[in-house]
Amino acid sequence: MEACGGCGSTELKYQRNRTLEWLYKTSLFALRALEPEHRRTLGIFALRHGMPLPYTPELPRLSTKFAALEFPNPVGLAAGFDKNAVVFGRLLKAGFGFVEVGAATPEPQEGNPRPRLFELSEDEACINRFGFNNDGMRAIAKRLKNRNRPGIVGINIGANSDSGDFADDYCRVLACCGPFADFATVNVSSPNTPGLQELQRSRELKMLLARVLATRDGLPRRIPIFLKVSPDLRYGALEEIAQACVESKIDGLIATNTTTRRSDLKSKYASERGGLSGKPLFERSTRTLASLYRLTDGKIPLLGVGGVFSAEDAYNKIAAGASAVQIYSAISFHGLPLLVRIVQGLDEILESKGLNSVCQAVGTENSNWV
């Protein structure tokens, strides 16, 4: 059964959405007994083999542009779900404004031992310690090269856990996958690769960005380079990152990755090692985002990630300074129909505030978060 690209009137499409939402909820409930990573693998399999997709309307008010890219809407899928670039076309068809695949490393790697993904249902959160498990840059580049659907696809680039030179790994992945992607994200903030987060220090970051940008300049076409940062940085560290990014003229910042901090969690898995995502991350990640917006004087586009479960969450990220948002954990709990609700709800919020575009909302409530 395919997506409803031409199945009649808009009302029929929405009726179909309501049926699909019930099916998604029923399926998610039925599959709760499975290990979370097995459920994720099953979801990828279902998407590859024709799982019905919801109808997400294209709403003119939500189209936006930043970093020389034009997005049909500002709601993207964060890296970590389509690690190996096998279903990004289907995800774009479902209505995401953009999809980020990866993280990709130079060589394939298994990642950390299982179990390495934990669902904290009581907290609507996840903890993962995947460790950049992926098929490697060559396999991912081949899939990106062979894509046959329009839409914006980014590549999240990482380093092998046994690498002797993290910066060289980033450059190798960018050189291999960059020609077939619309943007690339330098992931220096994953908590699951020892030593990686040290690249967020000012001196190391400036040298890394110089090498990455030089590699980008050698690609057949210029693609934007984004930097993904941790929510656990002190304000002083954020100042140094902002300065390095402004000086290097990087194209964007993604705020934020997962957190290693724990507070007020109810689940029995709360003490598991790894990065925490989902609702408990929302406030911390949004405050980091707002600080970066202020520290860069709004000159660098920001993507807001962390705890977006509703249209109101998405709007709050944008009003704090984000040009677009990304979701992931929320889809694990509520399925793809949540994307439709966020997109439609965000359009309604902008309309209620008398705004004609997403860009008019960016940073308008920054002071609420810093």
Summarize the structure.
With 370 residues, the protein is an alpha/beta fold.
Primary descriptors:
single chain; 370 residues; alpha/beta; eight-stranded parallel β-barrel; three-stranded antiparallel sheet; 37% helix; 15% strand; globular; disordered N terminus
Description:
The chain is α/β, with parallel strands linked by helices and 370 residues long. It has helices at 10-30, 36-48, 88-94, 137-145, 166-177, 202-217, 235-248, 282-295, 311-320, 329-334, 337-352; strands at 64-66, 69-71, 75-77, 98-104, 117-120, 125-128, 153-157, 183-187, 225-229, 252-255, 275-278, 302-305, 324-327. The protein has eleven helices and 13 strands. The radius of gyration is 19 Å and the shape is globular.
- Beta strand %: 5-15%
Record the strand order, biggest sheet. 3-4-7-8-9-10-12-13
CA gyration radius, whole angstroms: 19 Å
What's the tally of helices?
A: 11
Structural class: alpha/beta
List the helices and strands in order: HHEEEHEEEHEHEHEHEEHEHEHH
DSSP summary, beta strand count: 13
Low-confidence parts = 1-7
Helix fraction by DSSP (H/I, runs of at least 4): 25-40%
Rounded mean pLDDT is 95
Distance between the termini: 47 Å
Overall shape: it is globular
**Biggest beta sheet summary:** 8 strands, parallel, barrel
